[in-house]
Amino acid sequence: MDTPAPRRTRIQQEKRELILEAALEVFSTNGFRGSTIDQIAEAAGMSKPNLLYYFRRKEDIHETLMQRLLDTWLAPLRELDDIGDPLTELRSYIRRKLEMARDFPRESRLFANEILQGAPRIMPMLEGELKTLVDEKAAVIKGWMRAGKIARTDPWHLIFSIWATTQHYADFDVQVRAVLGPDRGGDGRFEDAARFLEQLFVDGLRPKG
Amino acid sequence: MDTPAPRRTRIQQEKRELILEAALEVFSTNGFRGSTIDQIAEAAGMSKPNLLYYFRRKEDIHETLMQRLLDTWLAPLRELDDIGDPLTELRSYIRRKLEMARDFPRESRLFANEILQGAPRIMPMLEGELKTLVDEKAAVIKGWMRAGKIARTDPWHLIFSIWATTQHYADFDVQVRAVLGPDRGGDGRFEDAARFLEQLFVDGLRPKG
DNA sequence: CAAATTTTTGACCGGTTGGACAAACGTTAG
DNA sequence: CTAACGTTTGTCCAACCGGTCAAAAATTTG
User: Fold this and answer.
1) Of A9, A128, A157, B25, which has the fewest beta carbons less than 10 angstroms from its beta carbon?
2) Which domain CATH number covers B42?
3) Whether residue A127 is found in the same domain as residue A51
4) What is the nearest nucleotide to A35, using C1' and CA?
């Protein structure tokens, strides 16, 4: 099904990386339609026809970017495992997701842009791979609830709320910084967020006496 | 500072409303740059030059839409009051925000689009009006914590987490529906979400010991 | 070196987009 | 009726955008 491993020269590999890096920057802030090939080419330090020599269509860049993103994006949830203490597992999942929001905000915004516009390009993946993964992990969480390890609640919405709260710090970064102001909006905001979220979810999920 | 009350005929008022309604639909799904005047005009059932008779520039439509949005968008937070039981107050704030995500998803997505792109048009409002309001309400919440009515935590991040979790059901609606599937992704998803969020926040904020 | 291949660029093209404009059309008031 | 005013539309334009192409420049290969 996949393209049969296209042979690429060293220059091709490097330039393609350069373009993808530039495109991530441009797409994540302007969306797909709001971005122009010229913008990406300029950010990558090359001319438009030269860029089009490496990616024949604008959509190819976006598609490549999206494919790479999805692999790494779900990695934290895949790691959520049945071994170990449930509350500890959830806590480290939240921490990993928040670290991704901190370290890969552009990827988060690229994803958010796609979903906001109705996920026209990745809908099959949402209904397939993603749903399967979430259902699987929801079953794990349900097991923890049955065993009395965490409070009974809806596992799917629990996962949604973890996504929402962590990605918020990437997608709505400007708002967060504007509201916190120059004093508290600095680098420490992610640690404050980590502390808060840990408290919220751990106390909110601790099994009731 | 404001425009000196432009006189408008009845037709002008009606047509402007029609255009704003159509523009909300188009802008919220395609973003500003991703939307064309033609699309909006067609959605409003009129020709492009006719639309431009009521709004001289595309940006004017967006600006008007954004100004109206901001008023209603912060209303729920403004209602958060010091009277009444703190946990009840927070619970009804969450409920109101979730109802807005359910009833006004286009407004939510319009706002999300703007923030995602760095809030180029509303940054002053974020740093001014919004920050002032949030600081004010954070002080109220801090009072509740000092009084031992709710658990001690960061009020600003608490507000962020309420925004994030509730707006998620509007902004990421397609993902939510895709993951929940045809069975659970129906109309009941907002009630499930309300139940879950209430449990999460109320239990997570109940004062300890 | 020289031939072959890969990379880069300037010029160009067709389609789209935001917006201008004048003329036509409709409505209302005297 | 008619003049004034408000509304609608067809036509047009300049800028922009995604993408092509041939030729020049650089690099690799023999």
Assistant:
1) A9
2) 1.10.10.60
3) no
4) D17
ipTM surpassing 0.90, yes or no?
yes
Q: Kindly report the average pLDDT of chain A as a whole number.
A: 93
Please check whether residues A83 and A147 belong to one and the same domain: yes
- Distance of alpha carbon B69 from the chain centroid: 7
How far apart CA B157 and CA A180 sit, in angstroms, is 9
Give the whole-angstrom CA distance, residue A146 versus residue A154: 12
- B4 domain-assigned: no
Domain span including residue B99 = 74-205
- pLDDT, residue A10, reads 75
Contact A165 B167 (CB under 8 A): no
CA to C1' distance (Å), from A9 to C1: 25
> Is B38 a residue whose pLDDT tops 90?
yes
Residues with CB under 7 A from strand D: A 10-11, 35-38, 48-49, 52, 56-59; B 9, 11-12, 15, 46-50, 53
Give the dihedral of Cα atoms B185, B101, B20, B130; nearest 10 deg.
-150
Residues A93 and A195 in one domain: yes
Q: How many domains does chain B have?
A: 2
Q: Which residues of A fall within a CB distance of 8 Å from B158?
A: 196, 200
Count of other CB atoms within 10 angstroms of residue A185: 17
Per-residue pLDDT tens over the stretch A105-117: 999 999 999 999 9
Same domain, A31 and A94: no
C-alpha neighbours within 13 Å on the C-beta side of residue A59: 2
pLDDT in tens, A122-158: 999 999 999 999 999 999 999 999 999 999 999 999 9
Same domain, A147 and A55: no
Closest residue in chain B to residue A204, using alpha carbons only: B204
Evaluate whether residue B25 is within a structural domain: yes
Residue with tokens 């079953």: A139
Report pLDDT for A65.
98
Across the interface, whether the CB atoms of A130 and B156 are under 8 A apart is answered no
* Tokens, residue A124: 């099959």
Residue type, A27: F
**Nearest by CB to B127, which of A119, A178, A195?**
A178
Which nucleotides of strand D are protein-proximal, with an atom < 7 A from a CB?
Answer: 6-11, 16-22, 28
Q: What pLDDT, in 10s, does the model give residues A72-104? A: 999 999 999 899 899 999 999 999 999 999 999
Residue that finishes a domain, picked among B65, B89, B104: B65
